[in-house]
C-alpha cells in the first residue's frame, strides 16, 4: 500500500515530518488535584492526578519516596467497533507500567515520602499514538497538580514506511505493520526516558527515525510549555495579582 | 486547514463501521505550470508554452484510452489524484502505465493532488454516489485550474461521460470528448488508437454508421455482480481463473477450490466471452452434458476451423497439453465422466492486455484513408480473433501489429479492440523475434545512460584495494578452471579441486561476484530486478546486466584475475562434506574449457597434467555425490532439448539435433547443486524469515494420471508414492529399444510443475522441499550474471557473513514476495520465449528441407494421434482422417489399450509405438507458414 505518495504527502495530507494538530486543555476534572485533556489529531486522552496523598495500602508505603501509581484504560467508545474490553488486559497493564515508569523518572519522589500519587489516564478516542498522547496528558495533569518534577516529559512516535521516516503515525499508518518507535524525553535536560519499538530496523535507519521522534517530542514540549504558561497567566488573573 | 472525512465501511465480519479520518488540506501544492506566478515552479512538469491547452482527464479516459495517452501526441496532461486513486483501484496495470508516464521526463504529465488541496477538496453531499462525487471533484479542480491560471492558457476537461460533460459546460468549463479532441489534432493515425466508447457514453458518430443495424445475440448475458457474489456464497456458482487450452482454444479449464476439481468449459458459447487468465464465475452444466472431447479440434458453430500446430515438446506440466480424456471406455455407459463441465456466467476480473499478431487477409482491401474493419489474429492461440477498425489498412496488412482489447458485446462473435502500434513485417526474422519477446513481456531496450553510469570504468582489472581488502581471500594460486557450453561468454562459475595432505579433497566452487558491482537501490539493480533473468534465444541473448559486466568484468574468463564468491568444502574421498567455508575471493582461472574439451581430457588416459588429474578427481567425487542423491530419491528427468547450428552469416539454422549430455555436464551440475544446497542452508540459518529459496512442489496424483495411464497401457507399473519410488520404477522401465527409457522419463517430466522461487517467511519448512532434487532446501546461487535470484542470494550470503549489511527490501516481506513472484514470472516467460524462438527456427529449418523421420506416438485421439519426434524435439498431430470430417466411425479409440484402431481391426496404432512420418512446411494462407506432419 502507498503510504507516502510520490509528492511526499501522506494519506491524510501531511508531509513526512509533520505532526497532527495538537490541542490541550488543563483542568478537565475539577475534583482531581490536577487534570488535562490532550489531543493529537483524532487521538484524545484525558488524565487525572490525585495526590500526593496518604498511602491507601499501608504495606506499600515507602519511607524514602512517594509511591506512584498509574491506571490506563480505554473508553469503550474510543474505537469504531463498540467492543467491551475487559479491564486489566495485557495491553493496558503494559501501558500502565510504561506510563508509570516514565512519569516516575521525572517526579521528584524523594520530596514526598510516605505518600502516594495516582495518575489515571483514559483514552476517549483512539487514532494511533495513544501511548504518546497518554504521557503528554499525564505530564500536563501532574504539572496542574503542582507535583514537583525534574522536567516535563513529552512523548511522540515515529515510524518507517515506504522507505520514509514518518512522524506521529495515525491509526492507518500504525496498523500497516511497520516499525513504530515511541520516544519519551525530558526536553530541557535532553534525556530519553522512554524508548520502545516492536520491530526490526537497521541501525542507521533506526537512529534516523528516533531522531525524528525526538524532534517531535521537542515540538510537543514547546506546545505544552505554552499551554502551561497560558494557564498560569489565567490563574494570575483569577487571583487578581 | 483541517477537515475530516467520515465514511462507513463494512468490516470483514460483516458489521458496518463508521470511520473518521483526518484530512490536512494544504496550500503548498503546486499547479505544475512553469509559467505560474503563484506556485512553486521548481517541480513543474507541464509544457512551458502557454499556447497548448492543459488537458484534465477523467478516470474512464485514463482507463480506456491509455494507449492513446502513451502516444507523444497527447501531452500537457494533468492527472488528478482522485483519478489516480480510482485508476489504481480499478486496474493496476493501467495505473502502472500512467505512473510511468507521470515520471517520464520527456512527457508533460503532472499529478495534481486535488483531494489534498484546500481549494479543490470536495465535501460529500448526501445522496451523491461516489462516482458523482469524483466527477464533481474533477470539475471543481478544472474550474480551479481555469481561475488559477487566469487567461494564460486554455484548460480543457476531457471526459466521455455525457452527464459530466453537460454539467461541466453548465459550470462554464470547456469540456470535450476524447474523440473530438483527437480529431481536432488532425492526425488521422491517432484515431486508430482510440477505443470505441461503450454504449452509454457519448457515441462516436462515424463508427455507428458502418455498423450493421441488427445483429443476432450470440452470447448469454453476464450475470450482475451482486447475483454472482450471492451465487458464489451458496455454492451455485464457482469462481476461478480461466485457462484456455494451449492446443485447443475452444476448450478451457477453471480451477475451482469450491469443488476441488477443474471444471472444463467446451466451446466459445460456454466460455461466454471470457479470456485466458480472467477470473470468472462458472455454473456447472447438468451431468448429461458432461461430454468427452476426443477430437483433435472441434469446429465451433459456423466458425472456420482452427487446427493444432506442430510445436516443441513441452517440458513440464505448466506448458504441456492437459489431458482431458477420462479413463473410462466408451462402452461403459454407467460410469460418470470424471470431470465436470460448466459455462461461464460472469467475469469477475478481466485479464485484458495487448496482444501481438497480424491481420487476417481481406478479400478486398478498402480504399486508403477510409475506415476499414479487419480481423486481427493473435499469435497466442489461446486468444480469440479481435475485430479492429483502422484507417491505414493497406499499411498494416503484412505487418505484425500490437492490438489491445476494449470490449466484447453480446452481439459480436469477436471482441473489439484497437490498434496500438506495429512491430514490423511478417516473415522477417527480427520482427518475428520481436513479436516473441513482446508476447512474453521481455524488455529488449538497450540499457539507459543512467544504468550504464553505474558500471565501473573500463578496462577494469582487480585493484590494489580489492587485494588489500581483508574480506577477500587471495585464491590466485589455486588451479581454478571453468567448464561451460562452447562459445559461452558469460562464465559465472569456476571450480577447483586440490588434494589435502590428510588425503581429503578441497573442492571450491567460485561464482562471479556480481554484487560487488551491482549495488542495491541503483538504477542498474532496479533494471536487473525488473528483467529478472537473461533470455536465451536461438541466435541471440538478451542480457539481464549490461554487456561489459556480463562478458568482461564479471565473467570468469581464463588467465585474468577476477573477483569471486567462493564456497569451499573439505571432502573425504567418499565425498562426505567435512566442512564448508564461504568467502569472497580473488581467482585467476587457468582454463575455460567446454564440456567436450573437459570430457576429452578426462577420457584421454595419456594426459596426467595437474588440471586433468583435478578433473578426474572431481568427476569421481561427483559420481559418488550423484549416486547418493539418486539414492535419496532425486529424479533423473529428461527433456527434449534441441541445439541449433546457426549459419554465421545468414543466421539460418543449418542443423538441429538433441542436446547431448556428457559426464562433464553432470560433474559441473553436481557441484553447482551442492553449492546451492550449502548456501541455502547457510542463509536460511541466518535469515529464517527473509531468505529467497527455490522449491519444487510434489506432483499431485491427478498430475501424474496421464503418465500412469500411458504406462498401464504398455504394461509398465510405475510407483508414484514418493520421488524415491518413482525414481526406482523409472530406472526399472527399460524396454527392448534404447530410447524407451528416455521417452518414459520425458513423459514423466512433463507431468510435473516447474520449481518456483519463494520467500522463506511465506511458507512452513516442510513446504520448502524440492521434489525433483529430493532436497529439503534449495536455492540459486551459481549464476548471478544471468539470474537475479542469485544476486539476491549473494546479498543474503554476504550479509550472513557480515560482509555487507542486509539491504532494505529484506525488511519488507511483501516486497520480497513480490520480487519472488516477478522472478517466477520472468523465468517462465524467458523459457516460453526460448521455446518460441526454437519453434521459429525449426520452421525456418524445415522450410527448405522436407524430411522423413521416425516419431513416437505420445497421445491417442479418435481421428489421429500426437507424435513426438525425438531428433528435433517437436511434437504435433498426425491425422488419420482428413481434417474437418469427424471420421464417420472409421476409427475408434480403445482407452484401456491406448490404441486407435480401424473399425475392421486391420490397422491399429498404440501409444509409444514408433511410426515413420513426413515433415513439411506448408502455407495454407500466404505469409503464414506452418509445419505439417503426415504418416508415410
Helix count from the secondary structure assignment of chain A:
4
In total, how many domains does the architecture of chain A comprise? 1
The gross shape of chain B turns out to be globular
Look at the helices and sheets of chain B and give the structural class. alpha+beta
The structure class of chain A reads: alpha+beta
The profile of the biggest β sheet of chain B is: 6 strands, antiparallel
Strand content of chain A: 25-35%
Radius of gyration over C-alpha positions of chain A, nearest whole angstrom: 18 Å
Describe this structure in words.
Chain A has 241 residues and is α+β, with helices and mostly antiparallel strands. Chain A contains four helices and nine strands. In chain A, the strands form two sheets. Chain A has a five-stranded mixed β-sheet. Chain A has a four-stranded antiparallel β-sheet with strand order 7-6-8-9, with helices on both faces. Chain A is globular, with a radius of gyration of 18 Å. By secondary structure, chain B is of the alpha+beta class. In chain B, 29% of the residues lie in helices and 25% in strands. Chain B is built from 25 helices and 38 strands. Chain B has a six-stranded antiparallel β-sheet with strand order 12-33-32-31-37-38, covered by helices on one side. In chain B, strands 19, 20, 21, 22, 25 and 26 form a six-stranded mixed β-sheet that branches. In chain B, helix 21 packs antiparallel against helix 23 (740-751). The longest helix of chain B is centred in the C-terminal third of the chain and has 35 residues, at 813-847. The termini of chain B are far apart. The model of chain B is unreliable at 199-214, 293-307 and 319-337 (pLDDT under 50). The chains are: A alpha+beta (241), B alpha+beta (936). The interface between A and B is medium-sized, with 23 and 26 residues.
